[in-house]
Amino acid sequence: MTLDSLIPDAAKREEGLRREICTIGRRMYERGFIVAAEGNLSVRLDGRRILTTPTCMNKGMLGPEDLVITDLEGRQFGGGRKASSELAMHLLFYRMRPDVNAICHAHPPTATGFAAAGRGLDRALLPEVVVGHGAVTCGPDLLTAFFRMETIEHSAKITLAAEIAGEPVLLSSREVAKLMAARARYYVSSPPGGGGGLPLTSDSGEVAEDRVTLTRNELDILIEEAVRKDRARK
Ligand SMILES: [Zn+2]
Predict the structure, then answer these.
(1) How many angstroms separate the alpha carbon of residue 132 from the centre of ligand 1?
(2) How far does residue 135's CA lie from ligand 1's centre (Å)?
(3) Which secondary structure element, helix H or strand E, spans residue 41, and what is its range?
């Protein structure tokens, strides 16, 4: 019998999770998602206990013994340090979402900048994300929650880079019509269900809805394509 086999599974699991919180905390700090004593991390230990980071400490420099255990109401069980006041937000997630086993809260600067400017990251926003004061991500495990935090910041950086590089340029309705006609030439079929309608164009505001201007040649191509499809059906 080895010494390791005498340690109960629950204790081994807790030890592993303690180390994981320290590792992810270090990654968050190194990635610049948190500075000083900002941010907090937590995991669900079992049906009634949460393991979380302490308040007033740098989350990139934690040791496994610095972590705190509380119940789902925030009452502290163990650990010499005090849990973060932001733990209440984590507990709300755990009570509402039984599928959530881990939570990250950080202030990734680009994503937080969008929030501070009162702007959502509409194209980048994940359903798990709450961007108000900083960002909160959750997941079935801590690594997933961390990756979601990385994804938010990465998306925010791309959005910002696109805006610095210039306004996104939409195609005109005339260009869209040309592309639609070209689809027939290249035998590109519409997606099942006929696609989601025409895309938004740069001049959508000026032309009546569903009205497209075509040259004679483009119209001929569309008619030919319709006739060809009709024949193929018969
Ligand atoms: Zn915060």
Answers:
(1) 9
(2) 8
(3) strand 40-44
Q: Which CATH number is 3-230's, of 3.30.450.40, 3.40.640.10, 3.40.225.10, 3.40.50.2300? A: 3.40.225.10
Q: Are 49 and 67 in contact (CB under 8 A)?
A: no
Show the CA angle centred on residue 153, arms to residues 22 and 199, nearest 5°: 150
Handedness of CA 155, 160, 164, 166 (dihedral sign): positive
- Mean pLDDT for the chain overall: 81
- pTM of the predicted model over 0.70: no
Among residues 9, 41, 38, the alpha carbon closest in space to that of 23 is found at 41
In this structure, the number of other CB atoms found within 10 A of the CB of residue 209 comes to 6
Distance 133 CA to ligand 1 centre (A): 6
Please tell me the distance between residue 134's alpha carbon and the centre of ligand 1 in angstroms.
6
| Cα 198 to averaged position of ligand 1 atoms, centre (Å) | 42
Cα–ligand 1 centroid distance for 105 (angstroms): 6
The ranges assigned to domains in the chain are: 3-230
Strand, coil or helix: 203: coil
User: For residue range 13-28, what is the model confidence (pLDDT) as tens digits?
Assistant: 999 999 999 999 999 9
